[in-house]
Structures are given as C-alpha cells and as structure tokens.
C-alpha cells in the first residue's frame, strides 16, 4: 500500500528502496553480460545503476554545501561520453568519487576537462586487465 508506506516511511525511503532492489537485478545482469563478453550491455547497466544512484539513492549531493563535486563530475562525464563508455558514483557517495569507463579516443579530452574543473590529480587513469587483482609486495616508502 503505497500511501501507507509514504506516510510511515516517507518518499525518500521508498526511492532508496527502489534503487536497492533495481540494483540487485542489475548486478546479476552485469555478471551475465561480463561472462558472455557483452561489454556494451555491461556499460549500459553501469550507466543505469549510476542514474539510479543519482536519482533514487540520492547519494551524490552533500547537504548544506554549495560545492557538489560528485554531481558535477557525473554531469560532465555524461556530457563528454554521450552514451559511450559509462559513469557512476563510486564508493561512499556524499563526497566519494566517480567511476568512468572512458573510450581511448575520448580519454585526453575527458582528463583535460576534469583537470580544468577539479584541479590537478582529479583523475586517476587505470586500465582494465584480463586477470583479477594482484597483491604487490616488496614496495617501500608507501604510507597509508
């Protein structure tokens, strides 16, 4: 009963629940897309999840702040990528980071724009590997 749920939990709780249940379905679809080698479908689902986080989960804005770096970064990502690659909030939201899958031919423009808006060091370019994570040992001088 939606009216009762709205009165007892509020609209924001409903929106966040819609994201949660939708993202559970998207994760299963993302796994299937990756296992079948359908990268285009995987990226489409990343974008769907990103839009859902932004709109339904509402974890891209920092209350009582004029600076909204996550939301601005997402908007810039969408405007540069225009349906190529993918983007989404990543980590804790509310001052977290964004994750963007950027095609090679857009990488220079993307990093230049992010640096222009957010400053040097705003982007970290990573490459997707065929194998999973590696543990690096024997490194010195690293601090947490």
List key phrases describing it:
144 residues, mainly alpha, 2 domains, two-stranded antiparallel sheet, 2 strands
Description:
With 144 residues, the protein is mostly helical. The chain is built from five helices and two strands; from the N terminus they run ααααββα. The protein has helices at residues 2-9, 11-35, 39-57, 69-81, 104-118, and strands at 86-90, 97-101. It has a two-stranded antiparallel sheet. The protein starts with a helix and ends in a 26-residue tail after the last helix. The mean pLDDT is 88.
Write a brief caption for the model.
This protein has 144 residues and is mainly alpha-helical. It contains five helices and two strands, in the order ααααββα. It folds into two domains: 1-57; 59-129.
Order of helices and strands: HHHHEEH
Helix % is: 55-70%
Q: Taking strands numbered 1, 2, ... along the chain, how are they ordered across the largest sheet?
A: 1-2
- The average pLDDT value, as a whole number, equals 88
Classification by helices and strands: mainly alpha
How many discrete structural domains? 2
The low-confidence parts are: none
Distance between the termini: 49 Å
Instruction: Estimate the strand proportion.
Output: 5-15%
- Please tally the β strands and state the result: 2
The largest sheet, given as strand count, sense and whether it forms a barrel, is: 2 strands, antiparallel
Number of helices: 5
Shape call: globular
Q: In angstroms, what is the radius of gyration?
A: 18 Å
């Amino acid at each position: 009963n939606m009216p009762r749920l709205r009165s007892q939990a509020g609209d924001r709780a409903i929106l966040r629940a819609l994201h949660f249940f939708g993202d559970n379905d998207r994760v299963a679809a993302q796994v299937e897309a990756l296992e079948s080698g359908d990268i285009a479908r995987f990226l489409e689902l990343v974008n769907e999840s990103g839009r859902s986080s932004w709109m339904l989960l509402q974890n891209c804005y920092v209350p009582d702040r004029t600076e909204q770096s996550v939301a601005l970064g997402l908007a810039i990502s969408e405007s540069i990528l225009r349906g190529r690659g993918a983007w989404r909030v990543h980590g804790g939201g509310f001052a977290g980071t964004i994750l963007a899958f950027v095609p090679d031919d857009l990488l220079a423009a993307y990093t230049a724009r992010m640096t222009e808006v957010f400053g040097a060091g705003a982007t970290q370019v990573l490459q997707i590997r065929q194998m999973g994570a590696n543990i690096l040992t024997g490194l010195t001088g690293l601090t947490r």
